[in-house]
Amino acid sequence: MTNDALTGTGDRNEYRGFDGDESGTTRTVALETARDTLESAVRGVRRTLRQPTASDVAMLCCTLAIGLAVGTTLVGGRLAALAMGAGFAAALTTVFLASERPLVRGLGGVVAVPVAVLVSSPLLLAGVLVLTSSSVGVIAGGAVWVLVVASVAAGLVSWQQFGRGGVRRGSTGTMLATSGVVAVVVLPILPRADLRDRAVAAAADVLGVIQDELITPEGSLAVVSFTGLVLVAAVLSSRALAAVPAERLVPPDRRDALAAAVDGLRRGCSLATRAAIVLTVAAVAAPLIVEQFGTPPVTPVELRAALPAPAGDGLATLVTTPGIRSALVALAAVALGLVSLERLRGILGRGPAIVVARMVAPMVGGGLVALVLATALADPAAEADLRGILQTALAGRAPPSVLEFLTSVPPLVLVAGVLVLALSSLSSLLWTVTMLRAVRLLPGRATGAALAAGAVFALAVGLAINGRLEPAIWTTAGAFVLWDIGEYADGIRTELGRDAATMRAELVHVGGTILAGGVVAGGTIVLYRWSATGPSVSHPALAAVSVGTGLLAVVLVAWTLRG
Q1: Torsion-angle region of residue 296: left (phi > 0), alpha (psi -120 to 50) or beta?
Q2: Using 50, 70 and 90 to split pLDDT, how confident is the model at 129?
Q3: Between 275 and 503, where is the model more confident?
Q4: Counting Cβ atoms within 10 Å, is residue 438 exposed (0-12), middle (13-18) or buried (19+)?
Q5: In angstroms, what CA-CA distances link 166 with 83, 97, 171?
Q6: What pLDDT score does 9 carry?
Q7: Would you state the pLDDT for residue 406?
Q8: On the CB side of 385, how many CA atoms lie within 13 Å of its CA?
Q9: Number of other CB atoms surrounding residue 481 within 10 Å
Q10: Are 451 and 163 in contact (CB under 8 A)?
Q11: Where are the alpha helices (DSSP H) in 351-468?
Q12: SS3 for 299?
């Protein structure tokens, strides 16, 4: 033992050095933790999308080429490129938010806010086109949405969790990130009594408007809102019937009969879901094809005028009866409560700690990024421009209390509220894909290929309605080519694995599919030009039928050549 140890007269710089080393060690640990988190997220993305097959790459390139070509025709090259870039960014965000690791989900919440701003830009332009233009604007606005969906599908084509609940988890993560941004909006309002009163009044008026649109609609959205209520109630009821173990509530000798009854109810819900989707599409597309209707969507008044007396009056009365609408809302609320209780029971069974961590991580990530962005953007010039844009957009459409509330909130709250709207657009995009899978419009295998092919076919229908029949035929052939390539890629991954040496076989298949689609589409166009001596096929209804016939020919011939 030294004298310094006994007397305490050692060099003070040694103690300072120790304290400095401890502080440096803390910073080093924090930096290493952040670096490990980022590297873990990157490894997770690479592992999720690792080793894409040649068919995956071919499908992604074909989707990008078709989307840009058709999008340039319908909405312009810049807007088409913006929409597809936003879709690819949304696909990456979905992978982060669907992860099982809380840190990766937190990073997804961080990324979700700027990506939501990117996604909302083309969708906002699409909404402006729909609200301010005629039927051409509706087609252009729908084309922008379809381009975003197609690029999301192409970006996730090799993701194994696409058709297994991955997009649903991603959409749930987006809602959690949105709740974190909502906290940034609410917390500055709570300490101020005047803002609280105005917020409560605005919220009450908004809820009243929503109730009027759902229960007693009088505008142009009556038919669409009714089919939407039927769709939501049917989907939630089917989920509730599948989640609640009703057979445990009856004696064993009656369980078979109850199970048969539940299966019958679920089949009825499935039929109601499909009928609601068909009616929604018909309500939007009928004014674009049939001259008796005005601008989309179809209204109850137009139903009474266009359809025969018993059918038109009965259908218009059905979609506007408040009692039926109230029953659908109540059914959806009860079903949602049952599904939520069953999910809560599952969470408690899996371990609340890890589930809470997965839920809180996107909220924290989204809230922190929203706070930083709102603070950075809350300058007087941007505030004045933003208030002017909101007042112009909401004038005559929103209750006066909403406009009064928006003019009185601080700049940070205003910017954070705009970020909430942007996240809502991203969430609606992912929930659209989730609903397509939930109602069985998308298969469990090759989900990305089916979604991309369906989106491209929707673009072909838009071209046909605009009178561009020959590009519509080529686009229709491209839709089948995308589906065939993606389905073959999924089969390769499932049967042989990602590490199998299948590039030569895949390239042969890709080339054969493209050649078959091109030959059939070219032959269809040649026959069309040769036989186009009678009535023109520029009419939207005839053009849509021609596109469907062309798709059927492509499917039959390409399927035959495939063997």
Answers
A1: beta
A2: low
A3: 275
A4: middle
A5: 22, 9, 9
A6: 44
A7: 81
A8: 6
A9: 26
A10: no
A11: 352-377, 380-394, 400-408, 411-438, 447-465
A12: coil
Torsion (CA) 458, 463, 467, 469 in degrees, nearest 10: -90
Q: Tell me the mean pLDDT in the region 473-501.
A: 80
Which residues, including other chains, have CB under 8 Å from residue 331's CB and lie 6 or more apart?
Answer: 233, 236, 237
Local structure of residue 321 (DSSP, 8 states) = -
Note the residue count of the chain. 563
The two three-digit tokens of residue 552, written as one number: 């059927």
Would you say 456 and 482 are in contact if contact means Cβ atoms under 8 Å apart? yes
Crossing angle between the packed helical segments 54-74 and 469-496, to the nearest 10 degrees: 160
**What are the CA-CA distances from residue 470 to residues 29, 126, 464 (Å)?**
62, 25, 8
User: pLDDT confidence of 335, banded at 50, 70, 90?
Assistant: very high
Q: Are 48 and 98 in contact (CB under 8 A)?
A: no
Selection from 112, 31, 42 nearest residue 361 by Cα: 112
Quote the tokens at residue 136: 């051409």
Phi-psi map region of 497: left, alpha, beta (phi>0 left; psi -120 to 50 alpha):
left
Are the CB atoms for 519 and 485 separated by under 8 Å? no
Angstrom CA distances, 221 to 163, 203, 225, 281, stand at 32, 22, 6, 13
| pTM for the predicted model, two decimal places | 0.76
CB hemisphere CA count around 482 (13 angstroms): 32
CB atoms within 10 A of CB 561: 14
Token pair, residue 465, equals 């309605």
Amino acid at 465: I
Which residues does 219 contact at the CB level (< 8 Å), separation at least 6?
213, 299
The one-letter amino acid code at 327 reads A
Q: What is the pLDDT of residue 178?
A: 92
Q: Which residues contact 174 (CB under 8 A, 6 or more apart)?
A: 93, 97, 112, 116, 362, 423, 426, 427, 430
Only one residue has tokens 């509330």, namely 405
Whether the bond between 297 and the residue before it is cis, its omega within 30 degrees of 0, is yes
- pLDDT tops 90 at residue 322: no
Q: What is the CA radius of gyration of the chain?
A: 28
**Residue entry with tokens 């218009």:** 316
Mean pLDDT of 214-233: 84
- Rounded Cα distance between 375 and 373, Å, is 5
Q: What digits encode the pLDDT tens for the residues 368-388?
A: 998 888 888 777 777 777 777
- Concatenated DSSP letters of 495-512: HH-TTS--HHHHHHHHHH
Q: Is the dihedral of CA 455, 461, 466, 467 positive or negative?
A: positive
In 3D space, the residue among 316, 279, 313, 284 whose CA is nearest the CA of residue 297 turns out to be: 284
d(CA 21, CA 135): 69
Q: How does DSSP classify residue 417?
A: H
Q: Which two tokens stand for residue 364?
A: 């924290």
Dist. CA 399–CA 236, nearest whole Å: 31
CB-hemisphere CA count at 13 Å for 543? 22
CA distance 19 to 30: 17
